[in-house]
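Okay, can you check this protein?
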Amino acid sequence: MLIMRPFLLALLVASMGCGGRSANRDAATQANRDAVGSTIADRPSGPKPGLRQGLYLGAWNDAYITHWLAIYVNRSLQAVTYDPPDVHVLCGLTVDRDSVAFTTGVLTYLSTSDNYTLSFRGALTATSMSGTLQMIGRPFDGRTFPILFTHQAIDTATTAGDSAVEGRYLSVRGVPQTGDILGEELLLIKGIGHFIALYTTIQGAPDGPYPADSLQIEGDRVVMVAHPYGAENAVKRLFLLTSGAPVPAPATSPATPSVTPLQKTASVPELFAPSRAVHCPHATPSKRVGD
């Protein structure tokens, strides 16, 4: 029979105890790892990548004229393009991390009356989109144009007074001799601390939208300055905003500029409602941004 000496017996007991404590520590460590992994897996992954609520404005130049493309993203994160007088659902919208692609609805080239679409591919940041547009259709079929969209945040907590001001305003008149339609359109959107204004002229067909470079609103009167045809050709207009039936222009004198009454025809939510927009031709309308 094996007889252990007291100090050997004590050493064996101690080593067995250490082994038990080591196993317990290993089990506890694994349990902690499992718990941490479970916690990480249960955490929300954060907002999905996608366009932000607001207005994206970008300019592209075909060597003859500068065009502006306006994309409005509503509270439901549905995106439409604004091509006065029409609103088009943004087609084939895809967002993958920081890459974005889409195609516009059918647009019309003003000077030639050709129909075309624009296909965009580029990079998306929190404040902008940059990339290239490719024209599909005449007059520059297949050509690409660089573009930078800047994001304009909109005020989601507008007051009743601001809501009464923002919207689309229009003034049109016919020319009996030619049958042409002449007029102007002004779109006001409440941004953060200011109003965003898009201006369109109508001379037989709409030409716009062009962003206003300066805007002053005093009651129902608006003073706007835009440069739709270059920095040297400023357009300064004084408008009288009305929400009812059209009113005649106020009397003017050589000392005062002419005032053009504009009638409100739609609120911003009404104008950009996807249900009222022109849907994508031969395609399924884009899903919600980030879906």
The chain has a mean pLDDT of 81. The CA atoms of residues 168 and 187 lie 4 Å apart. The two ends are 77 Å apart (CA to CA).
